[in-house]
């Protein structure tokens, strides 16, 4: 089991985990109001050419992760989603503390790579729902690609790296690296493509040029989720809009997957 992931730190010493009031992490009161007024409790921002994050929470680990990628990758596509998940009444806790049991549940949910297989997203080009990942599995490493069970933890590690093989019906069969960071305030995972993504026979996104960040923060009665997909994509007329639309719809699919799992398990 130890071979399914590479730990920078094996298991961290227990750290008191605190939730953060929404007004301390969402950039402005106006943004909070817009999120809560939306039908789905979320905001989406899409930027092309020279993007700059506009929905990123004011939290140091999130900002460090996102801006670190922005500064090195210099993407020409950025799709952000800011989502507020209302906890079920049974799961609401003291607004000052992130319940450790809930945190373990959240961490194990976002490392359950196999459960992404079969999720659906809305395909703008087809005007219909379509399968996102036909296949999704943790693997031992990018070379041998041996399928492994999803890791399960009784205590979230401070950091974790796993590799996954995922067959996307749009971009094909690819290998990804997932890096997880668990701090007192936030759980963050970053997805990076280890293989190039192709649209049919056309190379669209080179190796390492797609990075997706998902950050989860406890807010007492709420769980705040911030997702950012950043890509340096090939400059092909008409493709940037298609890719950004696809990223946005896929982000919605991942958020539905996450919230559905929370509804069942939190």
Quick synopsis:
The chain is 24% helix and 36% strand. It has helices at 22-25, 29-37, 60-73, 100-110, 239-265, and strands at residues 42-48, 77-86, 120-123, 128-131, 133-139, 147-148, 159-168, 172-182, 186-193, 197-199, 202-218, 222-233.
Structure description:
The chain has 266 residues and is an alpha+beta fold. The chain has a single domain (2-265), classed as Alpha-D-Glucose-1,6-Bisphosphate, Chain A, domain 4, CATH 3.30.530. Helix content is 24%, strand content 36%. The protein is built from five helices and twelve strands. It has helices at residues 22-25, 29-37, 60-73, 100-110, 239-265; strands spanning 42-48, 77-86, 120-123, 128-131, 133-139, 147-148, 159-168, 172-182, 186-193, 197-199, 202-218, 222-233. Strands 1, 2, 5, 6, 7, 8, 9, 10, 11 and 12 form a ten-stranded antiparallel β-sheet that branches. A two-stranded antiparallel sheet has the order 3-4. β10 and β11 form a beta hairpin. α4 (100-110) packs across α5. The longest helix has 27 residues, at 239-265. 35% of the residues are buried.
